[in-house]
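Below is just one:
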Amino acid sequence: MNWTDSARAKAWFRKYVLPEANRLKAAGTEVFPMRPDPAADSYYETRDSDSPLGPADFELLGDDTARDFSMMLKELWESQGHAKLAEGADSLAKLADRLHTEQQQSEEVSPFIYVMF
């Protein structure tokens, strides 16, 4: 990431994330709790056995374009009540598309991978 991309990312954060974080904080919502909840008996949640997880629960919808990414983010954030974030979904998708790079493939195995054969 070059300095102009870094500046764009920081500007996006300041324009969309910080106002939403400040709004939530003013409303008394703790987005990222910094300590355990002393009133909680447990953090374990039992899953509904009638709805097992399937492959679709782990897959993104769409054809992985910046436009699809933008639409999914906008819908998610609107459904969660984060209007300011939803407003910035298009510009975030454009920034992500700009920063996207293809990884180069190599026949050489990374030294961080244990090869068994």
